[in-house]
Amino acid sequence: MSFHNYQSFWNDKASSVQGAMLAVDGSADEATLRATGQYSARQAIAALELQPDDHVLELGCGVGRIGREIAQRSALWHGVDIAPNMVEVARQRLADLGEDKVRLNALSRTRLDGCADASFDKAYCVAVFIHMDKEDFLLYLRELYRVLKPGGRLYFDHWNLAHPVGFERFEMEVAQYVDFDHSQRKDVARNQFTCPEEVRLFLKHAGFETALVLADAPFLQAIAVKPGGEDAAVVGKRLAADTDTIAYSPEWTRWFERVLAMLCGREHPSQILADMPPRDADKDAAIYHPWIRSLWRLNSERWGPCPD
Q1: How many C-beta neighbours within 10 Å does residue 182 have?
Q2: At 112, is the pLDDT very low, low, confident or very high (cuts 50, 70, 90)?
Q3: How far apart are CA 74 and CA 141, in angstroms?
């Protein structure tokens, strides 16, 4: 099926609760979604130096995978997404947190309509810019700048073309277009890629000061500051001392590369799980064990039955 814009693509993916969860990060069940959400939230909380009185915006909130964790540690969490179906699933999943902690609304264009100027202390965007054209990436950065207070903090990630495994992931996209009919539009939400130099350039032209860019993993992570508060260099120096919490570890990258091999048919999930430390051994094993099993159960016709 061909889709003409972001909204139609993600609305279709979120036509069911399980479809919405799968579209967010490949989690096929609530337990896996909670595990990956806690992992990503830990990174965001450290990068934003989240405070209990912060008002926080998430661009591309999906089903509230990360928002559930952030909302419980801040004064207000406001999630926005281009797909109304995603927003509705998030509303259902986060209903127990209360309307005083959670706000949600759907977007209709590359603007943060409904968000006032200088109304948020912190903002973040995880695994969302990777599905956007460059023009929208910059436009949203400018909108995030608008809605942040002076001194406000932004954290986001993006596929990292400058990392070997990031480029390997890019090659998977390239392979899809070897014999592509270019009279047709490419997938509107296909994976897009960037590099540290481009991220710094975009942040500069959106008005931000770059505090820290972490690029030693397939996912590049950026932390920026809106001028008017603490100096970005001071923020960056302080955060650089906490990269063990914020950054993706070498072990995370190692297992991610093997998952790519699994998806390309070069490895079986059973071998990866056999080589991996027990689920409770470290934070990376804690997300990879349920995530790989979730993918395996969804693809049992390919890899056979997944053991309990």
Answers
A1: 7
A2: very high
A3: 22
Structure tokens at 79: 């999630």
Per DSSP, the three-state class of 220 is: strand
Give the tens place of pLDDT for each residue, 162-206. Answer: 999 999 999 999 999 998 888 888 888 899 999 999 999 999 999
Chain mean position to CA 56: 16
Q: 58 pairs with which residues across the strands? A: 79, 124
Q: At what angle do helices 283-298 and 30-48 cross, to 10 degrees?
A: 140
Q: How many CB atoms lie within 10 A of CB 300?
A: 10
pTM for this predicted structure: 0.96
Is residue 194 within 8 Å of 220, Cβ to Cβ? yes
Cα dihedral 260/264/268/270 (nearest 10): 30
Using DSSP, how many helices (H) and how many strands (E) does the chain show? 14, 7
pLDDT in tens, 220-260: 999 999 999 999 999 999 999 999 999 999 999 999 999 99
Model pLDDT for residues 59-69, shown as the tens digit of each residue: 999 999 999 99
CA-to-CA distance for 282 and 124, rounded, in angstroms? Answer: 25
Six-digit token pair at 45? 């909380």
**b vs e for 57-67, b when ≥16 Cβ sit within 10 Å of the residue's Cβ?**
bbbbbbbbbbb
CATH topology for 6-246 is: Rossmann fold (3.40.50)
At 158, give phi and psi (nearest 5°): -165, 150
Structure tokens at 170: 């890019």
- Decide: 155 and 44 in contact? Cβ < 8 Å: yes
Residues contacting residue 132 through CB under 8 Å, at least 6 positions apart: 6, 140, 192
Structure token pair of residue 151: 């001194």
> Which run of H or E residues covers position 196?
helix 196-206
Q: Please name the residue that has the structure tokens 């609530």.
A: 30
